[in-house]
């Protein structure tokens, strides 16, 4: 599978774009005309620069408003085409994109357009060039790839072919089965883009909201499989118009783009009708069986505070590391590691972020295969030399530069706690609070990072993403989206902050970057847990009394249940599947907190309660006497 990306897809000056594209692993690049025009060098300079980066120019684009023009416009279009051909030859590329005409003076007619393209093909052939025709979804006369193909077919010229673009086909809900009948040698290049499903003007949707395959809601995999069924073996190229990408990191967006194509190719490869697609095999997405442990980095003083909270939450110290200053606090299937080393990665993480949950270990079906897949998808490996007799845990970098450890039960990694740790008896009596397992891990990121991490998780692990929801903070809106598996053994909520006045934004600013902002633990009986927590001295997050009268009226709760909820500061929600109960701790440091939940069939995450939880948390963070925002 040969990969390419249009320069318009990422931000920066042309040399910066090309460097990022090459570094990400692409084979080729489409030169968008505006990027060329804004560059001071000649076309030959651009061509040399591209080749110096080890790339091929796959396409020069766009050439607009060509076919079906009346005179004198028609003559001028051919003059313009000759000028494009001059530039292409100096650039060192042989393919130009002609998009369907949108000019109000253009004339309709399949035969008229075909005649124009035949003549253009004759001119291109004299220079050893090719012309690809693309149907724009908003084209004046041609907006369907089936009509574009009919024009190419009637033009009947070897130098005239078709360019297929997933956005233009899928946005108009055109039947993709029609692609399978197109001869592969008449498909000159394939452009790919995904997009969220939004009901808006096609042109505006296309110019502002496209994203990488796998980041949106369009059936890009089905589209690509239809292409592969023709036997096509040319370039698959990304053409992404996105306001967020235009202001983002060229390196990060290029890496996302390459990852999206590799994952797309892997998905298509697994379909029986796509045997012709040449893709380097990789292991399938990892099946996550659960969160093995969460590790905090802290210094000695902060560790005391954290451990004190863990004990109140019912955790007992059960093991210590054989060679490092790491302690394990456990309750049923939950393991919390507290690392106070003054050297190594944990120490460096603490120096930058303060006390934080810098590492999450996932129990997967095959840790080695999961790491291999992550690296094939452009993941960044992490290696830290283990001590004598200790295990080297497979790990990759995750959100905020933190770590994701990969464990499995089929190797010695399943005995990690026995090999690297020695068991201890806790000398502090602790009453259990009936917490069973990690329900979900909540990570706060900059809004511009959300698509990156959604793609990261869904391409690596056997998960799916839920629709985005708006979390209302008194100081703004936070976008929230969930990555989860069907079994519920992995649930990650990603909360994207756009300004620092929100609670999520405050966390990013104070922690110097993205990371885990809260951990949610599951209990089978929220009220028994609340009573046990109270006995341990737990001080819950105080919820406004006004909340409970409203929740009783909204859901028709029995007054006795409402009083129970109010007495323990428990939040309540209900969906079509069942009930949900939430109990929150107060904040630890600059915005981190714990959550305890009980699910009675409920599938969501209590989004309607977020505004009340956020208001209470912000009140906790507000210094005494400071006015409300």
What does this structure look like?
Helix 1 (14-24) packs parallel to helix 11 and helix 5 crosses helix 6. With 629 residues, the protein is an alpha/beta fold. It has 21 helices and 26 strands. Helix 7 links the parallel strand 6 and strand 7. The strands form three sheets. It has a nine-stranded mixed sheet. Strands 18, 19, 20, 21, 22, 23, 24, 25 and 26 form a nine-stranded mixed sheet that branches.
Structure characteristics:
629 residues; alpha/beta; TIM Barrel; 2,3-Dihydroxybiphenyl 1,2-Dioxygenase, domain 1; 9-stranded mixed sheet; 26 strands; elongated; disordered C terminus
The CATH superfamily of the largest domain appears as Divalent-metal-dependent TIM barrel enzymes
The tally of structural domains comes to 3
Average pLDDT, rounded to a whole number, is 94
- What share of residues are in beta strands? 25-35%
| Largest sheet composition | 9 strands, mixed
Count the strands? 26
